[in-house]
């Protein structure tokens, strides 16, 4: 069961609902989004019905949810959510009315490389800067990222370019320091089922980009989002980045059907990562076009000023003509499917 609070509900109104639920032995999980607060109830449903929660001040509605993922379900939130990313004065929207383009280096290697990649991304039309500070790699011998030094570089580049930063966090102990430097916390495919990490980012007070696990079903992906929402954060963006199949011609198989499937089930925005799906730069532009056509709320891609020398995922990073082709696609195609460039709606 979910209690939806009115937009003008006060903290005292929320506390009164929580107290009522706890008085009959239930648990109440408060989750706050940009424009609304919802409270997920766990316990005896029949006892909750006797509380007459709809009569409490500040309560807009009460829903009994059949989906296992209750807080992120469209059953209580039929309108799709827009998540705003960035500091006050420069917030970028990701949602159903816009198309948001995020780009940057897969890994931060140096201040110079990151600044150059950010300039490339911005010139191509990107409004969000992606860059890896902590890199969970398949091989323990591969480049693992610069850590906190990379976070400081990303913060400096944000200051210079005005682009809000999204970067991955891989350890719950690092959530505070990453949240201090970044505007959006990314959970990568390898950590989608790291439940303690999901709970930690849910408490961090920053928007979260949740990538689909490489072997996860859509329901498992949405249940991972529920872990974040249950700890107080509804500002979640889902990212389809390809799943592992028997097909070896690409790194992963991009499941574009997941975009409309998830949008039908959840109110959360959904973007696509064609770079990590394909693992090949020649496929990034056509897959981006397909993501736009299928209704994705945005894309996130790798760019690098010198892909052949990249310390991480160079073969998929865009440069030159491929990046110009992508810039053309993200400028021309979204209006054809009723989308506005997110750059036009940045909130001051």
From TrEMBL:
Residues 91-330 form the DAHP synthetase I/KDSA domain. Keywords: Transferase. Signal peptide: none annotated. Residues 1-66 form the DAHP synthase ferredoxin-like domain. The keyword Transmembrane helix does not apply. Pfam families: DAHP_snth_FXD, DAHP_synth_1. This is 3-deoxy-7-phosphoheptulonate synthase. It comes from Nocardioides bigeumensis. The lineage of its organism: Bacteria, Bacillati, Actinomycetota, Actinomycetes, Propionibacteriales. The gene is aroF.
